[in-house]
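Section 5.1 Outputs to date
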Amino acid sequence: MPSKATTRCALVEEIRHIREGFEMADRKAPGALQVITTPDYEAMVIGAHPDDNDFGAGATSALWAKQGKKVVWVVMTDGAEGSEVPSLIDTDLMHEREQEQRKACEVYGVQVVEFLRFPDGHLTNSEAARKAVARLIRKYRPRVIFTHDPSEHILAPDPDEKPNETAYLNHPDHRATGNIVLDAIFPAVGNPRSYRELLAEGLPPYRVHELYLFFTSKENTYVEVSKTIDLKAKGLRCHVTQFGPETDMLDRVRHWGEETAKEAKEKKGLELKSAEAFRRVKLYVPEKPEQEVEKQEAEVEA
């Protein structure tokens, strides 16, 4: 008898095939709006707080920027709870942390950073948050979106295997960000009838190609970042309010990269020096040009 997991996977696969086999009945009707599938930016990285994007995808962002790819970062909250001093003025801390994030983006070569300034520590999957994210995705049209894996709640080692290590309870803003982004991508970003006021802003519907989820235990993709891992450490050092001016991040960040590379070899047989890990999800595969398809068919027949 098949397991529940097997049955669920089969059902998901069946639904996917059904969706791929049919188009909306009025897609070619008068007034129907075509969904854009051609990206402008290569990547958009969406994190909950200043420094989350650095930890999650700093080295990959720097690598892709060095390759000439356009990368935009988005920070969901104002970062105003990122301190243990209750008397600090929220707006002062917010501006300081935003400036730190801008400096880090300069280190990585990230071209644009957007701050949405939702309240730190109180982020919810609200209509306002989904709309704000949908607006930015339509504006920049990234091929790939990096964000938090919303399914991760408790990241904990086996206490018997590692008795001296503690668990990490994933920040609620991290989980909220992941859910906001996923719920914005589908259906809102690609639906011509979702947030129709965005059309008046010149922001038509767009189809995101891939997701790369970070802070996940379900990694299936590893990016070789040995050429930019030191930039990740340098970028993290810009966040002085979080780590202090004297903190040396280099050894720690290099160690993380090396450990992730070891994991890539164990799981995928990859020979990497330093890596960042993601849960990669494909959402749209562009059709190949007709000439390329004909060439491949000819090669197969030959």
